[in-house]
Amino acid sequence: MHDTMKKYNLLPKALLKKVADGDHNAFRAFYEIIYPIVYQFVRCFLSDKEDCREVVSEIFYVIWKYKENLMTVDNIKSWLFIVCRNEAYHFLKQKEKYSFVSIDDMPVELQIDVTDVGFIDDEMHIIYQNAVNELPERCKLIFLMAKEEHLKYREIAEILSITEGTVAQQMNNAIRKITGIVKRQYAESNHKQKLFT
Q1: Is this model's pTM higher than 0.70 or not?
Q2: Which 3-state string (H, E, C) describes the chain?
Q3: Which is more confidently placed, 146 or 96?
Q4: How confident is the model over 86-113, as a mean pLDDT?
Q5: How far apart are CA 115 and CA 59, in angstroms?
Q6: Which position has the higher pLDDT, 9 or 44?
Q7: Spatial separation of the C-alpha atoms in residues 88 and 101, rounded to whole Å
Q8: What's the rounded Cα separation, in Å, for the pair 165 and 75?
Q9: What is d(CA 53, CA 91) in angstroms, rounded to the nearest whole number?
Q10: How far apart are CA 22 and CA 70, in angstroms?
Q11: Dist. CA 191–CA 170, nearest whole Å
Q12: Residue 186 phi, psi dihedral angles, 5° rounding
């Protein structure tokens, strides 16, 4: 994940230019770089893997269809997330699963690389994952977009159609809840270890 993010953040303008000019090989390289991130973000909106693959396929069709506009996009990452969100909403609407999809009802999966975050031990990583997974869905999505995808509050607000203030509030709530859960679970874990030693 970390290597993919590095490649993604350094997406060369020359590659985007070739894609915009209709170069199929460049589009294949572009696809291979961003597919994991696009898929992961779509999974935030759709729990079914087959649905995700269908929506991701549609997203790449949309990107190819509007490839000429790629060079005019100021922030490719935010633009891609907006395309993902819009296509996921469109898909849900078409399937008539929901007449309205609340961000609070969207499933969010935690996928954090231990080596990337720098945890001291596996036990602490498990405690951290459990804490993040206990967050309400909306709070978890915003937290993961900020911490895992390294998006700015402004970008998250734009992607999710909410205010920056809401993003900041959700991040404060997430950090406060995670800190409390981690402290509590780590203390309990250490207490159990002392009982058995």
Answers
A1: no
A2: CHHHHHHHHCCCHHHHHHHHCCCHHHHHHHHHHHHHHHHHHHHCCCCCHHHHHHHHHHHHHHHHHCHHHHHHCCCHHHHHHHHHHHHHHHHHHHHCCCCCCCHHHCCCCCCCCHHHHCCCCHHHHHHHHHHHHCCCHHHHHHHHHHHCCCCCHHHHHHHHCCCHHHHHHHHHHHHHHHHHHHHHHHHHHHHHHHHCC
A3: 146
A4: 60
A5: 30
A6: 44
A7: 10
A8: 21
A9: 12
A10: 11
A11: 31
A12: -70, -40
- State pLDDT tens for residues 105-119: 455 554 444 444 444
Structure tokens at 193: 């270890």
Which tokens is 138 given? 């909306």
Both tokens assigned to 26: 């460049």
Residues in the chain: 197
Interacting residues of 38 by C-beta distance below 8 A, sequence separation 6+: 56, 59, 60, 80, 84
